[in-house]
Specification:
Number of helices: 8
Largest sheet: none
Strand content: under 5%
Order of helices and strands: HHHHHHHH
Structural class: mainly alpha
Helix content: over 70%
CATH topology of the largest domain: Rna Polymerase Sigma Factor, Chain: A
Distance between the termini: 25 Å
Shape: globular
Length: 191
């Protein structure tokens, strides 16, 4: 779905040169605000701080829209700004870890009984806790890969690191997540 939105965004920018920065910003916010929030939250683990970072990201996008060169996907540019802003925030404030963004995970429509729905929600919450307990270098690649559907090359650009480093961290992150998941009694992640 993000790829489709990316194309729609690029198309609208190319064919509407008189579109002002406020309209472009509004379009970017409509397309990416939830994903930017989730990515920011993955760093700071605090809803209020993630909201502040999300606002700051879009202010930066607005101020620097003329600097977007188009050599990477607009999502990569926005995620790069988000990662930098979140890391800056962490260095400034040293946030504590709490709360779970379960409500920001896609809820799948199902015919589950209330008990099954509760168990599924509980399992998703436990999985998120396991992801958020990983070191940030593993957490960021896992979140960009699985929650933001970025490919290895996109993650490499977003995090400004070698693609092989991304691959290594993705493999190690998966292994550490699997170990943590099994240790909390979550069962098999592969199945």
């Amino acid at each position: 779905m993000e790829r489709h939105n990316e194309v729609a965004f690029s198309y609208s920018n190319e064919h509407s040169m008189e579109k002002d920065a406020e309209e472009v910003l509004e379009e970017l916010m409509n397309l990416y605000s939830k994903k930017v929030y989730l990515l920011a939250f993955s760093f700071v683990k605090n809803h209020g701080s993630a909201e502040d970072i999300t606002q700051e990201v879009f202010i930066k996008c607005y101020k620097h829209l003329d600097k977007y060169r188009g050599d990477a996907a607009i999502s990569t540019w926005i995620y790069r700004i988000t990662v930098n802003t979140a890391k800056d925030s962490l260095h400034k404030n040293k946030f504590t870890q709490f709360m779970h963004p379960v409500k920001y995970i896609t809820n799948f429509a199902s015919n589950h009984t209330p008990e099954q729905a509760y168990m599924e929600k509980n399992q998703k919450e436990q999985l998120l806790q396991a992801i958020f307990s990983l070191k940030i270098k593993y957490r960021e690649v896992l979140i960009l890969y699985y929650f933001h559907d970025q490919k290895i090359d996109d993650i490499s650009k977003t995090l400004q690191m070698n693609a092989n480093t991304v691959k290594t961290r993705l493999v190690r992150g998966r292994m550490k997540l699997k170990q943590k998941w099994i240790s909390i009694g979550g069962g098999d992640l592969d199945g």
